[in-house]
Structure formats: C-alpha cells, structure tokens
What does this fold into?
Amino acid sequence: MVSMHRVMVLVLLALQAGGCVERRSSKDTTRASIVARDSEPDDQIPDKLLTVTESSTHDDGFTTLYLPPAPTDVGLLARARAVLAAARPGFHEWPPSAYAPVLHDSAAPPTTTGQLVGDFDGDGLPDVVFDGYDGRIMVTIAVLSNKAQPRTASVEEGSEVPDPLTPRRVRFVVVSYMLMGNHGVGVGFVNYDASGNAVVPAAIYVYDKGHFTPLIVGE
It folds into this structure.
C-alpha cells in the first residue's frame, strides 16, 4: 500500500504541474503535538461519515469529496473534551456567536463551526476537531482516537487572537480524497468573504506521522 507520505508527494506533483496547488512552508503554521491517554475506547465510526454528498475537485486523477456532518455523539464529544482539557488546559472553544453569518449556498460544502468528526488518523475510529484559542493564540486542534489511545494534535495554530475581536469567517468540513486507489480523510477549512459567500475549494490538512500537513488547493 502506498504510504501517506508518498500519496502527498504524488498529489503535490500532479497538482503543482497544473498550477493549482501550493504547499505552505513550515513557517506558515505552528504545529504542536501533546500526548494524552484515556482508558475508555472510542465508539465505532458512524456509517454516515462514509456517505459522500458532494464532489469538490477533480484534477489529474486526484479527487476530493466533502462529507456531511456526523450525527452528534454526546459521549464522544465529552470524552474528547476530557482528553483535550488534560492535554491543553488553556484551550477554550469559540462559541457559535464568534463566527460571522454566511449565505446558504447549495454549491458550498456542508460545513460546521466546530466539533468536526471524522477518521483523520485512519484507524477506523472517530476523531474530533475543535476550534478555539489558547491565551492569545488561535488554535484548531484534533483529539485523535489513535487506536483507542487518545492523543491531541494541532491542525493549525499560531495566529494571534485579534484585538478587538472580529467574527471568524471560516467553517470546517471533512474532506475525503482518493488517489490511485488510496483513500484518506482530511480537515477542510472553508473561508468566507465579507458578503458571506464561501470561497472554495477548501484548504485541506492531512494527518501523517504525528502531524497535520496543510495543502492549499486552488487556482
């Protein structure tokens, strides 16, 4: 089976050749990885997570698909929050009121403002992504099931919390991709303009070897 690293290299080579992919340097994103353990195993991943609702990008054999939001699992969220609180006690989630209103567009992906559920580490168990801040730093962080040994991994962080606060013009979506028969799932960031229109395609963050690696897919 092709490794995640090789898959990402093939993706970049194919898309960069068409001028539609740019990879961020390590300076653009501060990554952190804090290990925490939980004695309770996570629930099996809901079937609905595997239902593809919309195709977003097709280019040179690389296909990305937006997945619908997972049904709310109160127990899963509670366990994930407990792991996150132990690993990063300074973290706070943004409330729904922190996000700017957006226009409803049938062509836009099915996004959420936080608590994004998907199998991002590829172990067959659901992981949860939270959006928030730690002190004066913006943080989007995942609690990974990690084969029933939960740990946290930063998806994106490092930007300073604006002062005064301004509404966040971003939403999140689970992005499934397929390349040469290999399947993976990433965290998608969808930005919105001042009018509330979605700017797609999404920026995709893929988990590999203990870290999330950002890819920007666009024209």
Q: What stands out?
A: The two ends are 30 Å apart (CA to CA). The first helix runs from residue 4 to 17. Helices lie at 4-17, 74-87. The first strand starts at residue 21 and ends at 23.
